[in-house]
Specification:
The chain is of the alpha/beta class. It has 14 helices and 10 strands. Helices cover about 55% and strands about 15% of the residues. The relative contact order is 0.08. It binds adenosine-5'-diphosphate (ADP).
Length: about 450
């Protein structure tokens, strides 16, 4: 009985039709993949053009670029670059969209052609008395149902392939080293020492190591200077220490534990940093200093120590005063020196055990830098502080001075020890003393 039903079914099914429908849908599917493959191939270029256009938009909206653009009459080439990048992005988008349009058109033609052929083939079978008229209706319905189900399956694959082009970019982003979670160890209550053990580092885009075989130990509460000419690798070294980059070889430890084993979010709590570019966002002073929620008393204390309290007391909105006028028309602009103080207040508020000052004073004259570093020394007596600079006279007071040259640690010691060594540090110090004319007692 069972065998009989199956026999009836298989005799009823027209296998040539099944194969024909499958072939037509496979051809449609292949056709749909052509624009997806093209979009995937062009994704890096598309991402790059997108970020270029975004940068142009940011520059155009940021008033601080206005001065340079006007003075150097840069609007002409700015406009040309903007237009060229915008045009290139538009052409790329149009090219990809045209491919999608063409493939959709071909798929529609295949679908219509397939239905026509099916219809005429079944009519032909009816004409030849190989198919009853009622079976014609039934087979036509079955064929179109089967066909649309197959189409849906293939379309799902196609949508998945298309979305995966964008997921690919997201994955690349999430796999970046600085997005990794790190380990699950909690950070120690007290930092006794930070050590670099045979650390090498190479940026992904570069062939050569930027840092080579760095070995050093920074003890708790020490004031350490990292000096060297521009491009020597000073910033890279502190970024490695703060876990924002990972060593290509070797390891960095805190109290003898590899820092990659620490939970990343809590590891970042160990550091405050004031960088060369003082990035001030358009939010309120309170938010700038403390982040999301803040304790007003502690923020005022930080402002007082950093020297910005008087200035902020004059503002009617106090800590709720916005910087720039993006979010509040009554927002204020801060001078370079005031931004400096804001960054110091941020470090004071965070109260982390290690503070990094990465050439925050590079726009100042040597004497102002010296005074500023002295002030930091007074403000953070209990902290481990790293002073990064290319001006040697500013960091004479440090307990350790590390001289980097072409990514290598050339000299290491106190100011007096390095002068006695009479090597690169001593030569640079003498040269800077002459060219900066630092004859004042402080700078000596
Ligand atoms: P310093 O702080 O001593 O001026 P850096 O650590 O900033 O030196 O840079 C050291 C070297 O690494 C330089 O040659 C610089 O061009 C290169 N470099 C810095 N940042 C990057 C980066 N993100 N990608 C590629 N190379 C970089």
């Amino acid at each position: 009985m069972r065998g009989g039903s199956l026999g009836l079914l298989t005799s009823f099914v027209k296998w040539e039709l099944v194969i024909f429908i499958i072939c037509a849908e496979v051809v449609s599917f292949v056709c749909m993949q052509v624009p997806v493959a093209c979009e995937r191939e062009k994704q890096p270029l598309s991402n790059s053009l997108e970020s270029q256009v975004r940068t142009f938009n940011e520059i155009a909206r940021n008033p601080s670029y206005g001065k340079d653009i006007r003075i150097f009459q840069a609007w002409e080439f700015f406009h040309q670059h903007y237009k060229r990048t915008g045009d290139e992005r538009r052409r790329l988008t149009e090219m990809i969209q045209a491919k999608y349009l063409r493939s959709n058109l071909i798929c529609t033609m295949i679908a219509v052609g397939k239905d026509f052929l099916l219809f005429f083939y079944l009519i032909f079978l009816v004409g030849k008395n190989k198919l009853a008229l009622e079976d014609f209706v039934l087979l036509m319905g079955l064929a179109s149902g089967f066909s649309s189900n197959l189409l849906q399956i293939f379309q799902s694959f196609s949508t998945f392939a298309r979305d995966s082009v964008h997921i690919m970019s997201l994955n690349e982003f999430l796999e970046r080293e600085d997005m990794q979670d790190g380990g699950d160890k909690s950070i120690p209550d007290e930092i006794r020492q930070i050590a670099f053990e045979h650390v090498y580092f190479k940026y992904k885009t570069e062939d050569d190591y930027v840092l080579k075989d760095i070995n050093l130990i920074i003890s708790a509460h020490e004031k350490v200077a990292i000096v060297g000419l521009n491009g020597a690798g000073k910033t890279t070294l502190v970024l490695l220490m703060m876990g924002l980059l990972r060593p290509s070889k070797g390891r960095i430890t805190i109290n003898h534990t590899d820092i990659s084993q620490f939970d990343r979010a809590s590891y970042l709590q160990l550091f405050s940093a004031v960088f060369q570019e003082l990035n001030v966002t358009a939010f309120t002073i309170g938010e700038q200093i403390a982040g999301g929620r803040w304790n007003p008393d502690l923020v005022w204390q930080a402002l007082e120590k950093s020297g910005l309290k008087q200035r902020m007391e004059k503002e009617p909105k106090g800590l709720d005063t916005c910087i720039h006028t993006v979010f509040d028309e009554q927002g204020i602009e801060l001078s370079g020196g005031e931004r400096q103080k804001l960054a110091t207040a941020r470090a004071l508020y965070k109260d982390s055990p290690v503070i990094v000052l990465d050439e925050p004073t590079s726009a100042m004259d040597p004497l102002s830098e010296w005074k500023m570093f002295q002030k930091y020394d007074e403000l953070f007596p209990e902290k481990t502080v790293l002073y990064v600079t290319h001006r040697l006279s500013s960091v004479k007071f440090c307990q350790k001075i590390i001289l980097l040259e072409n990514g290598e640690m050339k000299e290491y010691g106190t100011h007096e020890e390095l002068l006695r060594l009479d090597g690169t540090y001593a030569a640079l110090f003498r040269l800077q003393k002459e060219s900066y004319g630092l004859e004042s007692e402080e700078a000596e």
